[in-house]
Amino acid sequence: MAIFDEEAPKKSRPHEIGQDLALLSASELTERIALLRAEIARLEADLEAKGETRSAAEALFRRG
């Protein structure tokens, strides 16, 4: 029975804006780019949905 666990799998930390990228490998950078692109798409979809909701509300109140 080993006293210490074998090397634990490396847990990837979330990307932080302004973070030093020098210690990241090319594959880690690629992974983060994909993660950030997915997050941008999610944010843009939410922004668009909020714009549609606002437009619908404005149209509703203009009728009266």
Round the Cα radius of gyration to an integer and report it: 22 Å
Name the structural class: mainly alpha
Q: What is the strand content?
A: under 5%
Averaged pLDDT: 84
Number of helices: 1
Order of helices and strands: H
Helix content: 55-70%
- Strands, count: 0
Q: Which segments are poorly predicted (pLDDT under 50) over 5 or more consecutive residues?
A: none
Distinctive features:
single chain; about 60 residues; mainly alpha; 1 helix; about 60% helix
What report would you give on this structure?
The protein has one helix at residues 26-63. It has 64 residues and is mostly helical. The longest helix is centred in the C-terminal third of the chain and has 38 residues, at 26-63. It has a domain at 27-64. It is built from one helix and no strands. The model has no long low-confidence stretch (mean pLDDT 84).
Helix and strand topology:
Blueprint: H1 26-63
Question: What does this entry show, briefly?
Answer:
With 64 residues, this protein is mainly alpha-helical. It is 59% helix and 0% strand. The chain has a domain at 27-64.
